[in-house]
TrEMBL record, chain A:
A family per Pfam: ABC_tran
Name used for this protein in its record: Putative hemin import ATP-binding protein HrtA
Secretion signal span: none
Annotated localization: Cell membrane
Species of origin: Companilactobacillus paralimentarius DSM 13238 = JCM 10415
Automatic annotation (TrEMBL), chain B:
Alphabetically ordered keywords of this record: Cell membrane, Membrane, Transmembrane, Transmembrane helix, Transport
Main location: membrane
Transmembrane feature ranges: 20-40, 229-251, 271-298, 310-335
Pfam families the record matches: FtsX
Name assigned to this protein: Putative hemin transport system permease protein HrtB
GO CC annotation, single: plasma membrane
Job of this protein: Part of the ABC transporter complex hrt involved in hemin import. Responsible for the translocation of the substrate across the membrane.
InterPro entries: ABC-4/HrtB_transporter, ABC3_permease_C
Keyword DNA damage: no
Keyword Iron-sulfur: no
ABC3 transporter permease C-terminal domain location: 231-342
UniProt similarity note: Belongs to the ABC-4 integral membrane protein family. HrtB subfamily.
Length: 222, 350
């Protein structure tokens, strides 16, 4: 059974008098323990697709099933709750909160969530951040920041991990390291993960590859 | 609270600067309020602190004591009706001087009263001959108990029997005289200025009946001072509303992308609104408390020539009003926080 399944997703935006169809009849699925990559040129609808998967945006039509539950018509409040407890986000620029220490970045998520908390310090140590626990984000390198973001995404034990171009602000060596960490964690913890990227050098690390172009999504044979 | 305390800790200097601004504004408001109250007391405390509620003046005297002249037949009418709740009052603004020093003159106000009446301060006791009780304000002009002074106009000499509180009238210290003493000084001792009444009365045909506050408002200079000071205070509130709103807005505008990320991670909007309000509330409360302290210290050090008076009620009231103003200022920022779309976190837009 897939963790996340998209059926016939369409997303329209009004564009002056016309309607701009960003996503055209998209179907997609990702299973437990699977690390999927979505490739595509900029403007192809990658980000829009990710915001729909992440319950940040509702589709114009179609069904989004997360753990077999239809979330496509959730209210804003339900979406917020869902993002907190069921989805882990890794953003392009890591987007850590500047005034929280590294350990607090994770503890805050645990604080606002009603899920049983795991050991945040242990996760950070596992990712090689043991010496950075009481640093602020501005003291960290880009790679370290992205590792904190990964730890933050996994802290709440979500079933689905969504990564938005996690290598965009890193050099190729660090970028590869970061994706490797995501891959290992996904496989170890048996989570489903979707990564939007245009970095072809890391495609050997993922389990399945999808190509999006002009709003249409196709699976690419690996 | 979790986010608030950590953000305050991390951005100590930025928030200290904002707290300093709040402190300075609240302090200025408190200081001017204290001066306004001090001047009000200096202007009318000799009237304000009596238990009288109503004053009866001659018709057409425009609520001014010195324009009113009543005579014995008037007094009889009121005394027959109100007995011990009425008493006569005459006020004369004159000049006194030290007995042997004609160049050192002091402006004073004579209050001609019956020492047993409710207009007399508690410390005024029965005196004989030329002994009088005077306001403690005269102390700053170098007068002591037992000193003698001369009424500059009539040349009559009096001896200070004791001090009352700092009663004053139109910024002059008050000297309490009885009828007999007044006869030697005032040209027309048969008439008097007003009848003070301990009860509430609004109308009596043939007379001008006014409340105590109306009488105080018409003491020369009182309204002009008070209205300009309160205009300043009013503008200070208005200015601080806008200044704080702009500061809060800018500070929160810098954090918009953080708010977007926090929302994307699943933080409720209500939590963020609480965060912003707590932050602004904590800053305001600390600014207000420090200004309370500084105002208190200043009050201890103010010279007698700068009358300053601030009651605890006024102090707390001002503090509360200001806290309200500060939270109102945060409103604009809150709208912005509510409107942040978590979608901004995706696509590296920020």
């Amino acid at each position: 059974m897939p963790v996340l399944e998209l059926k016939n997703i369409v997303k329209n935006y009004p564009d002056g008098e016309n309607i701009n169809e960003v996503l055209k009849d998209i179907s997609f699925q990702v299973k437990k323990g699977e690390f999927a990559a979505i490739m595509g040129p900029s403007g192809a609808g990658k980000s829009t697709l990710l915001t729909i998967m992440g319950a940040l945006l509702s589709p114009s039509s179609g069904t989004v099933l997360l753990n077999n539950q239809d979330i496509s018509h959730f209210s804003k409040k339900q979406q917020t709750q869902l993002r907190l407890n069921e989805i882990g986000f890794i953003f392009q620029n890591s987007d850590l909160i500047p005034y929280l220490k590294i350990s607090e970045q994770l503890q805050f998520i645990q604080k606002i969530s009603n899920k049983k908390s795991t050991d945040a310090i242990a996760i950070l140590k596992q990712l090689g951040l043991g010496h950075r626990l009481s640093s602020y984000p501005n003291a960290l390198s880009g790679g370290e920041k992205q590792r904190v973001a990964i730890a933050r995404a996994f802290i709440n034990q979500p079933d689905l991990i969504l990564a938005d171009e996690p290598t965009a602000s890193l050099d190729s060596k660090r970028g590869r390291e970061v994706v490797q960490i995501i891959q290992e964690t996904v496989h170890q913890q048996n989570k489903a993960a979707v990564m939007v990227t245009h970095d072809e050098r890391i495609l050997d690390l993922v389990d399945s590859i999808w190509q999006i172009e002009d709003g249409k999504l196709n699976k690419v044979n690996k | 609270m979790y986010l608030t305390l950590r953000e305050l800790r991390h951005n100590k200097w930025k928030f200290s600067a904002l707290g300093l601004i709040i402190f300075l504004i609240v302090f200025l408001v408190l200081f001017i309020t204290g001066l306004a109250n001090g001047l009000a007391n200096d202007s009318g405390s000799a009237i304000k602190e009596t238990p009288a509620e109503t004053f009866i003046l001659q018709k057409g005297s425009q609520a001014r004591l010195n324009r009113s002249k009543l005579t014995d037949p008037d007094w009889q009418k009121f005394q027959n009706k109100y007995h011990n709740d009425v008493t006569k009052l005459s006020v004369a603004q004159m000049t006194i001087q030290k007995q042997n020093n004609a160049s050192k003159k002091t402006d004073i106000a004579y209050f001609v009263i019956n020492k047993d009446s409710f207009l007399a301060p508690k410390s005024v006791k029965k005196t004989d001959g030329n002994q009088v009780y005077v306001s403690r304000k005269l102390e700053s002009d170098g007068y002591k108990v037992g000193d003698s002074f001369k009424d500059s106009n009539s040349g009559k000499t009096f001896k200070i029997a004791g001090f009352t509180n700092t009663e004053s009238y139109s910024h002059s210290p008050v000297i309490y005289l009885n009828n007999q003493q007044a006869q030697n000084i005032l040209p027309d001792s048969k008439s008097f200025n007003a009848i003070a009444l301990k009860k509430n009365l609004t109308k009596r045909s043939g007379y001008q009946v006014i409340s105590k506050q109306t009488l105080i408002n018409n003491i020369p200079g009182y309204s002009a001072e008070q209205s300009s000071l309160y205009l300043m205070i009013g503008f200070l509130y208005l200015i601080s509303l806008f200044v704080l709103a702009v500061f809060f807005y800018i500070i929160n505008l810098q954090k918009i992308s953080d708010f977007g990320t926090l929302k994307a991670l699943g933080t409720k909007t209500g939590y963020l609104v609480g965060h912003v309000l707590t932050e602004m509330g904590l800053l305001s409360v600390s600014g207000i408390l420090v200004s309370f302290l500084v105002t208190y210290l200043i009050k201890l050090k103010m010279p007698a020539s700068m009358p300053f008076s601030l009651s605890l009620t006024t102090l707390l009231g001002t503090g509360l009003l200001f806290l309200g103003i500060a939270l109102l200022s945060a409103l604009l920022s809150l709208i912005k926080v509510v409107k942040v779309d978590p979608i901004n976190a995706i696509g590296g837009n920020n």
